Amino acid sequence: MFNKLFYHDKGLFLQSFHPVTVLIYLFVLLLFSLAYENPLYLLALFFLLALLIKEVDGVEAWEGFLKAGIFLMLVVMIVNPLVIRTGHTIIWYGPEVPCLGRVNISLEALYYGVASSIRLLVIISIFCLYNLMINPDKVLNLFSRIAGKSVLVITLATCMFPTMVRNLERIKEVYQLRGIDFDTGSLWERVKKYSYLYNVLLFSSLEDAIEIAASMQARAFGSGKRSVYSRNLIRPRDTLCIGSVLLALIAGIWGLYYGYGRYTFYPEADFLIKDRATVVVLFIVFFYLSVPLILSKGWKYCRFLKSKI
Description:
This protein is mostly helical. It has two domains: 213 residues, no CATH class; 80 residues, no CATH class. The chain is 67% helix and 5% strand. The protein has a two-stranded antiparallel ribbon. A hairpin with a 3-residue loop joins β1 and β2. The two termini are 35 Å apart.
């Protein structure tokens, strides 16, 4: 289960971008998710992220993120109308509550809770997409020339938990093949069964540590200037993606400057679509942010495009 939440190289197009390209793209998405207040714009970002996650074959992992996100979403939607009383459109007049006074639920407070919940789901989806699109080792490798040893320590630390999860699943499968059922018996018996797992996991982790140390020694780590085994190349797909992201950022900033993407919740909720320009700006930003998705589709079905990017 937990293994699905981590990065897996599946040879997909969206996983072939340069790490800097992915970081810039996700950073711009994060900026938009924080800057936009209009629920229509936030829904568009959420829809785009859903398409990207589906394209990178990460729907199952996304479900795990959404379970936590939906729980927080419900909390926000329930708590916000109870504590915010600045809305003018009262839809329910509640009783007097000690320390809180009269609890009146306004449509604006409920609306704001929904918009905040959508923003939360967008941010969670961005981090989910980060886990699916980019190898964390490649991200850390960007800083290896500055602090090689520190990056190595961080890389080993970040890989430790996914590796332990995979090892634990394999060890559990071996014990199950030997006839041990971890779901039956009393609490003490189940604890005893799981203790076998962790004993084997401890020995396995120590063996892995010895193998890593031997590998580092065989490669003469720390004995001289650091060599490079592989390099991340900037390809036309990266140039197109970065260019489209910058255009989306320019269009988004221009729209925010003139009020497109902003939204007024209190004291009365504003219109979702004020004029035609609201939809036009949304379409332009959405189109430029969709370029990686369009390239991915073209890479699958167009041989000419595949040969050029």
